[in-house]
Write a structure and sequence with these properties.
This protein has 11 helices and 15 strands. It is of the alpha/beta class and about 325 residues long.
């Protein structure tokens, strides 16, 4: 099965396998040292016949884990902590980058209740903490906020489920559809705002929320935290400019606007006339996205989400 799976997909699959009376284990990357193929919080789901979903490394660790799990090595304990890449020999054997090692938590899943609760919460686009007692494997579910992060300390592992990042797209056109698709794949809560009936009436993308209010009102209502992202894609200054004006006053992590260099320069002049300072304008990414020679809507969407991803990963381009 695929190694590229979202958290909801892994949890849905875990629930389905448990209902089919399979033996199922969830393996989570709890801590990394040095270079690591997968970040903390990455998950791998395995069952007794070797079927699996997700990934905790580039592949070699998965093979070892599957062999050990299918041979019953972890069957006697509700939870097992494992470490890979401690020695240079082990790092080489499992294909870890130079100096890399990782700590894994393997849980034998039995209870379906917490899976159902988390999935119901995700469907409501809300956040939830899953806290695991590393001594006895006991699971506790707690409310979470947008600043919640994965943690592994003091005898507990806490995972955050739900859309911790919010992507607000202004405009429900063709390009927004592609940007929204990628955003969903990356785990964003995607909200599309367009008061124009000719566009909003045709919006059909499961997993996204469509709102028909004015874009500046949408920004004011929704972007109140540092994990909010605003991208204007309408090409209509009457809609884009006021949304950008509002976004530049907000704590939004990223603010971008579609357009050519010339139109972007004109937009900056208009925003200055509206009272936006040069310091605030410096936050605006316009033209939006990385310069990768994009022409088609799909290519532009890749460029937009690539730039946002780079910024989230602390890469200065």
């Amino acid at each position: 099965m695929t190694g590229n799976a979202s958290a909801p997909e892994i949890l849905h699959t875990a629930l389905a396998w448990l209902k089919q009376n399979h033996q199922v284990a969830l393996i989570t990357v709890a801590k990394t040292w040095g270079s690591s193929p997968r970040p903390v919080g990455s998950m791998l789901l395995v069952r007794e016949d070797g079927r699996h979903l997700g990934s905790v490394s580039g592949g070699c660790i998965e093979e070892d884990l599957l062999n050990r799990y299918c041979n019953g090595e972890f069957a006697q304990q509700p939870l097992t902590e494992l470490k890979y890449g401690v020695t240079s020999e082990q790092a080489h054997r499992f294909g870890l980058p130079c100096g890399g090692s990782l700590k894994l938590v393997l849980e034998n899943l039995i209870d379906q209740a917490w899976l159902k609760n988390i999935l119901a919460t995700i469907e409501q686009t809300e956040l939830i903490y899953r806290q695991i007692n590393l001594t006895n494997g006991e699971v506790t579910l707690l409310p979470a906020n947008v600043d919640a992060e994965f943690s592994y300390a003091n005898g507990y592992m806490q995972q955050v489920f739900g859309p911790t990042w919010q992507l607000l797209l202004i405009g429900a056109g063709h390009l927004s559809h592609y940007v929204a698709q990628i955003g969903l794949m990356l785990g964003y809560q995607v909200i599309v705002c367009d008061p124009r009936e000719t566009y909003s009436d045709n919006w059909q993308l499961p997993g996204t929320e469509l709102i028909r209010i004015m874009p500046d009102d949408a920004v004011k209502q929704l972007i109140s935290h540092k994990r909010g992202i605003v991208v204007t894609l309408t090409h209509d200054p009457k809609l884009d400019d006021m949304a950008l004006w509002e976004a530049l006053q907000s704590p939004a992590f990223y603010i971008g606007a579609l357009g050519s260099k010339r139109s972007s320069d004109s937009r900056r002049q208009r925003l200055q006339k509206l009272g936006v300072s040069l310091e605030q304008l410096a936050r605006l990414h316009a033209p939006v996205g990385l310069d990768i020679g994009s022409h088609t809507p799909a290519e532009i969407a890749v460029a937009v989400m690539a730039e946002i991803t780079a910024m989230r990963n602390g890469i200065n381009l």
